[in-house]
Amino acid sequence: MARVRSPNYPQFGLDEAIKRIGPVFEKERQHPMPKEVLAKHLGYGGVNGASLGAISAMLKYGLVDQVGESYRVTDRALTILHPHNDLEKTAAIMAAAFAPALFAELAEHFKGGPPSDENLRAYLVRRGFAQSALTGVIQAFRET
User: Fold this and answer.
1) What backbone phi and psi angles, to 5 degrees, belong to 33?
2) CA-CA-CA-CA dihedral for 82, 87, 93, 94, to nearest 10
């Protein structure tokens, strides 16, 4: 039987992504870095499945950009970490929160606030998510 692959989504919430991008910025500023360096700055021993998932989440939130084979901290991340004022930070966080296509889709579909977990589960199953992914998707969405 073929394995069901869920559509892409960030493996963790935006709060976690923001916590992880801070040390990357402190070490590298916005200098380009190879994937191996980014993985280490994110707290991993090297490039593996877990670190690739974290890098993917950073890309989805727009906290890092990929330029060729290199990665760099984005202006959005810099604005979140070191804003000129609270309004600028809030706008950057909102942009990051809805940057993942799935989260933008959920916000559009469930206008007025997030629904119950049961309603989210039903929507995500119809959208093609595997049962095993549902808890992680819902948790990342709620945290964001």
Assistant:
1) -145, 150
2) -160
93 Cα distance to chain centroid: 12
92-128 as b/e: b if 16+ CB within 10 A: bbeebbbbbebbeebbeeeeeeeeeeeebbeebeeee
Mapped onto helix, strand or coil, the DSSP state of residue 48 is coil
* Helix or strand (DSSP H, E) at 67: strand 64-67
Kindly tell me if the per-residue pLDDT of 142 is higher than 50.
Answer: yes
In the structure encoding, which two tokens stand for residue 121, read together? 């589960």
The edge-to-edge listing of strands for the beta sheet with 64-67 is 33-34, 70-73, 64-67
Distance CA 107, CA 112 (A): 8
Confidence class of residue 1 from pLDDT cuts 50, 70 and 90? very low
Torsion of CA 101, 120, 12, 91, to 10 degrees: 50
Q: What is the pTM of this model?
A: 0.92
Q: What is the pLDDT of residues 46-84, one digit of tens each?
A: 999 999 999 999 999 999 999 999 999 999 999 999 999
The DSSP symbol for 128 reads T
